[in-house]
Amino acid sequence: MQEFDLLVVGGGPGGYVAAIRAAQRGLSVGVVEKERPGGVCLNWGCIPTKAMLRSAEVYETVQHAAEFGINVENVSVDYDAIRRRKSSVVKGLTDGVAGLLKSNGVTVINGHARFTGPTTVDVYATGDSPLGADGPRYAAEPAGGAPIEQVKARDVIIATGSVPVQLPLPGADLPGVITSDGAFGLEEVPRRIAIIGGSAVGAEWATLFSTLGSEVSIIEMQKTLVPAEDVEVGKALGRSFSKRGIKVLTEATVSRVDESADGLTVTVDGAKPQKIDVDVVLVGVGRKPNTANLDLDKTGVATTERGFITVDDTLRTNVEHVYAIGDVTGKALLAHVASHQGVVAAETIAGHHASIDYDVIPAATFTHPEIASVGLTEAQAKEAGHDVVAAKFPFAALGRAQSYGDTEGFLKIVAGKKYGEVLGVHIIGHSASDLITEGALAMALEATLDELAETIHAHPTLGEIGMEAAMAALGLPVHVAPPKKR
């Protein structure tokens, strides 16, 4: 039996960060991981999708090269090459994480962990992937037989992540009905695809396949796409998608999927009931905790009705010496949140102080145009009782956006009316995922509209948009028309 000060079950963006930080604090650390290090984020989520979206972005840019005075002929998509590049990027990063774990003295045990007590596990060889040899092993069941290793630790961190939700939908088990994991197994760009779910996952795949030439329909039950975002952002994305030829169906649900002579038929219910003929149906309606076959009941940890593990502000569960981080806690299913939770848990176990502020969590969706946000939407701020001032500034009014050739979208800032404290920032437009950092820092430092407006920003940059929006919120815009007087 191997023994450690800390055992981390799961080597994703939460688990490997926790392991490294704990090792830096002098603890002996083991990690049980049944796939390559990096978890869903590096292997099946954040990184591979962004690598493929970058290929789509390059393709789209080249198609419009003549607008920039560059003549390019015979532009085409090599989907095999796109997939190979994606795999190369993933391998480079997962190999990098493995190297970091090794250089920090962390012991990695390959296999599937099953708890035998709160701080003891048996490790089994990993069974077949639910999607075959090329599918995600993070969701695979343990193989039969005796355990290949037994492990004991003083403290344990559960960091097993999440898996896609399967809809209880007639026809959900038909060939051609896939999840976001299954989308990576597609060997060619689908001619026609229906995407069920208009949140980040569905919207990103819609962007990718539409750009590469698919006929895309996206179906969302809420009033706007990306319903967690500010309503103005969701509406703007819907308009943008429609202009790009994506069929956007909001306030609509799918009641069944049937086989047809030419592929699949999706039955859509809503204000305009209809049937859509497609070749592939991608289900992207959410994720659930990845705790199957973990024997979690043997730890005694408390869970919610949806199966997420309950934790306190330091990521402790109700069981002494057992912690949980990342998607499995259901706090915020984002890789960067998992990483920060990993730091907090590791520091706490090592006897140091660390904290996390769930009110200041930036989020990004890598559609075209990109979306990013932090803090409260305008509606949420009003519901919380704030007297609100809100203002938008368009990318079209930025010299850098004009010169770059991408002027779609805006930044919206939400602030308290009396003191000007920043309550939320919401962006749809080029490089939104990078620009949101200023909004997060402003909230973390309790900055005001005046402070943002008075901070000199470099020109010409996209980053000026935060300063310009703050000026607009103060009623003193320079580069857009002043608000009409009532």
UniProtKB/TrEMBL annotation:
It is found in: Cytoplasm. One of its GO terms (cellular component) is cytoplasm. NAD(+) binds at residues 197-204, 220, 286. Its EC number is 1.8.1.4. The keyword Nucleotide-binding applies. PANTHER family: DIHYDROLIPOYL DEHYDROGENASE, DISULFIDE OXIDOREDUCTASE. The active site is a redox-active disulfide bond. This is Dihydrolipoyl dehydrogenase. It comes from Saccharopolyspora hordei.
